Amino acid sequence: MADNPIESEAGDPHVPVTSSISSGESNVWADVTSLLEAASQELQEGELIHGDNFNLFAAMSALEIMDPKMDSGIVCKYYSVDEAIENGAAPVPLSFDKTIDVQRTIDIMDHLLSCEATWHKGHSLTQTVFSCIYLLRLDRTSSHAILHSYCRLIRATCKAVISVVSDTRTHEEQIEECLGYGFLDGCMGQREEESKTRSGEEDLFTMTYGLPLNGDGDGKCLSMLNAVEETLSRQLRACKAPSSKKRVLEDIEPLQTNLDLEEGYCKALLCRLRFRHFYHVLMCMRRPQGRGLELARKHIASCLLELECIYKSAEFLRSSACGNCEDGIEDKTTASGCEPIGFDASLNSRLSAPTPPRAIRILNWKKAIEYFEKLLHDLDIICSYSLDPSLEAVLHFVVQFQKLRPDLVARAHLQLLLIQDGKLYGRDPIFTVICRAAALPEVLKNHDIQKNEFVVQLGQLVINLLKILCTNAAWQRRKLGKILQDWRVSYVQLELAFKMEFGEMSSITNEENVCVKLSKHILIWVEEQTYWIASRFLMLGFELELYSPSEYCMVYWYMYVVLIKLAEKHHLKMVMSNDTGKRKGKKKKDSPKDVARDYQIPPAVLFLQCHISLAEGLTMLLAALRNENRVFQSLGPFNTEHEIFIQHFELLQQACIPDHISYLSFKDTTTYAQFSTLVMYNYFKDALRLAKELKSSFSNDPDRMAELRRIEQVAEHNGIALNVICRVGALDPTLKVSFEFNHHPYFATAVVRRS
């Protein structure tokens, strides 16, 4: 739009005067195509046109009108849903031939299942599930009982899923607002950055764009579905009944006219309708305090059986469908291979946000089945969880669950189960959870210290941590790095608050003041939890493939120093807990045997020591390879090794985790590493020995036993690789060393080959 009418330059025959179209008192529209063509001939490479109301930013922000990939307002086929219906895009009935009507109904069900799975994977609701015209005008299907009941359940299920995902996101934002980073000096800028960059997979997933998700009578959708199921069951029994009983069942009208196909079609419809009891699963899992988990598991088992039946029905449906449906069956969104009627993704393009419409590919029917099978298995794992009140057990369960790579819907349900009304599982107050985690006696869970401002904030940090651990790996790692400083500052705030309230802790014995004992336990636990978060942050980097082989040395070194601190704090917590228990016993005199037993290192600490030995061994092995073989060095043209160190560990360094650790500390440790020294003290042998010894301590813990076996494999293979390098000679030019993660997701295995 120009401020004045466009006129040709004097004496320039190449720029003709163009007629204007009035659009107001001060502005007019004008065709500037010829002007731009003339200007483009005179522009040199690197030059840009710039004006008062036309600059680079405006040009980059402009929409490309009439480009189907960029213009969300462009009409592909129909201007509106009503026009699509008038043109017969979604007929009711689907066909006057009952057999074809049934075939098309099944195709719609299958395509909706594929659309639903595609939506769960992060695409827009408008381009997936609600590309179905029957869903957009659900009242039109009231005369078609099967399609009407199915579509109602689809709509109710979408609403339930959106509700769960929205609630979990809303709660997370509420927690952050409660924290507000207000007790962290100088962090408000960080808070603003977080709000600006909050664009996860949930953003697009929960947008409803004004779609008709709310409808009268949706509360009765299950009873409607059950009525349709009962009718189909009677029709199935009628067609399977022997001839002697058919007279009794003659009053039951068949599903369609071809009696040879009756049984197959009844079964295909029934299993698809019964699978929609998936809605029951969602409703049961939303019950407070996990009261519906057992019933949800029963519905999950039923849904898995129906999915199997749906999969088996494909052969019958393909054989009974038209012959040309066999082409490219693997890419089809229906079991029959036929294209469904009643779908048009472009109808909702005007409802979408003012962004370019993304062309999406709907998951094929088989992949949709596989997605829902995995989703149901993931939900079953959540439902089978014992709701252990121990925070350590909760964190372990969430981390193990995340290894299954659950999708958004499963993770949202896990978060909803863990945190309800600001309590663990909706029943255990967070302060009670902290007391249990800090190894404090149960009698202290009602102590007045829980009302302390900074203790309340600590509880909010625990809630926030649990929510973060339920997010996807990339978002989780980023948020864990951000909250490390929160935990570190929380420790300082708590320490200062306890000193102000109780005085110098070193001058008061535990027997004299219960509050001092409680505060010491809490402070040690906060430090332990901070180092646990740091270790999780570092390990997720391997899962996300953020480290290159030349960076493994510094990463394993940082893991080593963090794990050392984690083991130290964990051991200190256990020692304090044992001291408390010992005082309760009131022994008059400890025997030498009891003293020796008290000084034994607990298995949980030795388990961490296995990881410490592996991390230290890999650090020194990589450092020796760098020093002697000149391999795995950070010699990139853009960043120095120091800059790479800062890029990877800046968030840890800002939080001083651990204290007095820097790039210089890393260089001091690794600069003089040699294979001769490494052979003298073989860290991998220590890890292997500890792993074997610890098996008896964790015989009843399958997860720990599996981890010990992985540690054994990494330690054994790395020990062999170290011996081969030392025996052949580190300077042998034919010797090639690489690192693979074939035995453990975080600890690499050295592979030695000759070139």
Please tell me about this protein's structure.
The protein is mainly alpha-helical. Helices cover 57% and strands 3% of the residues. It has a three-stranded antiparallel β-sheet with strand order 3-4-5. It has a two-stranded antiparallel sheet with strand order 1-2. α11 (262-275) packs antiparallel against α13, α19 (473-502) packs antiparallel against α20 and α23 runs parallel beside α28. The longest helix is centred in the N-terminal third of the chain and has 35 residues, at 145-179. The radius of gyration is 33 Å and the shape is globular. The N and C termini lie far apart (67 Å).
For this entry, give a set of tags:
single chain; 755 residues; mainly alpha; three-stranded antiparallel beta sheet; two-stranded antiparallel sheet; 7 strands; 57% helix; globular; disordered N terminus
Provide the β-strand percentage band. Answer: under 5%
How many runs of DSSP E, i.e. beta strands? 7
Poorly predicted tracts of residues: 1-22, 170-200, 585-589, 592-596
Mean pLDDT: 83
Distance between the termini: 67 Å
Query: Which bin fits the share of residues in helices?
Result: 55-70%
Structural class: mainly alpha
Give a brief description.
With 755 residues, the protein is mainly alpha-helical. Helix content is 57%, strand content 3%. The chain has helices at residues 33-42, 56-61, 81-86, 98-120, 133-136, 145-179, 188-196, 201-205, 221-240, 243-246, 262-275, 278-285, 293-320, 365-383, 391-402, 408-418, 430-437, 453-469, 473-502, 514-543, 552-585, 592-598, 603-629, 641-654, 663-670, 675-680, 683-694, 702-728, and strands spanning 20-22, 28-30, 419-420, 423-424, 428-429, 735-740, 749-754.
